[in-house]
Amino acid sequence: MERVVDAAIVGAGVAGLSAALFLGRAGRSVIVFDGGRTRIDSVEEVREYLGVDGLAPQELLSRARAEVHRYGIEIRRQRVASATSRPDGLFEVYHGNSVAIARTVVLATGLIDKLPPLSGLPKAWGRDLRVCPCFDGYEVQGKRFVVFGVPERLVHMASWVWMWSRDVTVVSEHAFTDVVLDRLRLLDIEVIADEVTGLVHNGERLEALMTRKGNSIACDAAWIAAEMVAASELAASLCDVDDMGLARVDGVGRTSRPGIFAVGNAADPAAHLAHAAAAGTNVGPHVVMYLLDREIERRTASQKNAEWADFQKANHENRQPLIPHTLFLPLRDLKRRNLPRMRGLRGLGRRSRTFQCSGHRRAP
After folding, report:
1. In which element (H, E) is residue 57 found?
2. Which residue has the higher pLDDT, 280 or 358?
3. What is the arithmetic mean of pLDDT over 196-213?
């Protein structure tokens, strides 16, 4: 008999491990699939997360995995290639050369920032190329900022980081409207018509950005309005997704397909670490409730099947044909029930209390 787990969690970041922790404490059987590096690996320190501010990302995840292991949760260091639903309501999760069978799937696959080709970009690129001032704006507040990236997000980013520094420059070859330019001028944000091509360091410290025209723009922090897309195509193969490929969910993480849930950046591109952890915890009760509803359905169906089998067995042992009880009703009741006229009624006198439809015989 194949092993079936209650939940397969795809993604071992903060959101996925938070969901695993809840489900493990709820006594559910869970497999977590760890596909490797996550978005948090792009920074050197965790920020804006109460209790672990300043901690290295790998130390945070190591602690989280240890907590999850205490409740018997299995973590497999494998990437999920695909997942499909079965006619019986279960899901097959393919990883490596194996397949796991699960009653539910929780997508915690996150998103990725699509960066342009830039020279001088370190592995932990989030140290110099920042994506959200809420996360690490404090460390560079009041410094020289340069902002670049996709035009549709660039103006918002430039205005937003202005709250952390009044020295902001936008680099873009995009032709902004007068309304947009007026907004930037009100904040004294300069716009340079050029394209960023690389980062210049003095040791490990960022000191300037290079442009396509050969200019060097001095700065202490570079902010990029990057295009964001889903880190995995699993959601698109299992449920409704948005333009970024992120799962569309309700307020508790349920997707358009029953049994499929999504948490953290797999559903919300604006979710920070604290939001991701909360989403993982919040989805837990709803996964358990889904499992409970399916178990009640299964037991109800099993009970009905058993009752029907007992009924057939009893009729077989008594050798009684299955004759509908309405075939032996008093004639006045038939009229009251407004039943359709049946062959065999003609010729029955008023003294006849029952009738027999043609095509059926009385029980002996």
Report:
1. helix 57-69
2. 280
3. 95
